[in-house]
Structure formats: C-alpha cells, structure tokens
Design brief:
The protein has 163 residues and is α/β, with parallel strands linked by helices. The chain has 5 helices and 8 strands, in the order E-H-E-E-E-E-H-E-E-E-H-H-H. It has helices spanning 14-25, 86-97, 122-128, 133-143, 151-159, and strands spanning 7-10, 28-34, 50-57, 60-66, 78-83, 102-103, 108-110, 116-121. A hairpin with a 2-residue loop joins strand 3 (50-57) and strand 4 (60-66). The radius of gyration is 19 Å and the shape is elongated. InterPro entries: 3_dmu_93_MTrfase (IPR009725), Glyas_Bleomycin-R_OHBP_Dase (IPR029068), PhnB-like (IPR028973).
Length: 163
C-alpha cells in the first residue's frame, strides 16, 4: 500500500467500481474487507457486505469505501491520467463514458459512478512545462473549445500553426 492512498466513497458499489477501474486501466484488486456480521455501531451497509476494497492502478494504491449515500463525487476532485498518445487517450475516454459516463469540457470525463477524470497526453503535458506563455495560451484557447482533447490540434495551436 502506498503511503498516501486516495479513498473513494461509494454507496454499495465499491467492489464493482474497483474491478471496473482495474479493467479499464489494467490494474488489480488487492484486498476486500467486509462489515462485521454483528456490528454494534450504526452502519450504512448490512453486516457481511463489502466495507473497503484496496486496488492498484499504475502502481498507485486506492481505497474504495462503501460508506453509504451521504456523499457523492463532484468536480472538486478528479484523477488525472497522462496518456502516452492520442490512441490511449481515446481508449480511456471511450471506456470511461461507456455505460452511463459522460464527457465534459477540456478533457474531463465523468464515469458511470460519478468520478471525474482528466485525460491528457504526455505531449500536451510537456507543453505546459514550456516557458513560452504565449504558446501555452494559444493551446489553452483551443483546449477550451474541446470536450475530448485533440492532441494534434492542441500541438498545432502551441506551435502557432493556423487550424
């Protein structure tokens, strides 16, 4: 387990979501813990149901907690995925919007559980490290018109090439 593991709150779908994310990104489901059958404290889930799932994506550990309906995901937290290229970005985008997910602005995607993801390529991330603020501004202006990011169009804008 990593020193810091994001804990994602679910309302009964923790194990299903962990398997889904491991399938999309090629990770693993590492451990499943259960609520005690006889639980003396108030519990949002039935005794014996899944409490916590530990899973790993790209070497980063995560926890999925079945905490009940009190909290849901919003855009205040997202998971950013640096994709090798446009094909990988396209593959993750399509997988995350399948079965009830939805695309959002500027490369953001909300999956079927409501968790927000940012999908961006290595090439675009490298451009953000440039000292050329004018080129970055051109690239960002183009990005603001997109849902799924188009690396070639963003690179052309960064390079100052007309669309």
């Amino acid at each position: 387990m990593s020193k810091i593991s994001p804990c994602l709150w679910f309302d009964g779908q923790a194990e299903e979501a962990a398997h889904y994310y491991a399938g999309v990104f090629g990770g693993s489901v590492d451990h499943v813990s259960y609520y005690p059958q006889e639980n003396s404290s108030p519990s949002p889930m039935a005794g014996g149901s899944v409490l916590l799932v530990e899973f790993t994506l790209f070497g980063q550990s995560y926890q999925a907690l079945n905490g009940g309906p009190q909290f849901t995901f919003d855009e205040a937290i997202s998971l950013s995925v640096e994709c090798a290229d446009q094909a990988e970005l396209d593959r993750y985008h399509d997988a995350l919007i399948a079965d009830g997910g939805s695309p959002g602005p500027c490369g953001w995607v909300k999956d079927k559980y409501g968790l927000s993801w940012q999908l961006v390529t290595k090439a675009i991330m490298a451009n953000y490290h440039s000292d050329d603020k004018v080129a970055i501004a051109r690239m960002m202006a183009v990005m603001m018109t997109m849902q799924k990011l188009d690396t070639a169009a963003m690179q052309a804008a960064f390079d100052g090439e007309a669309a």
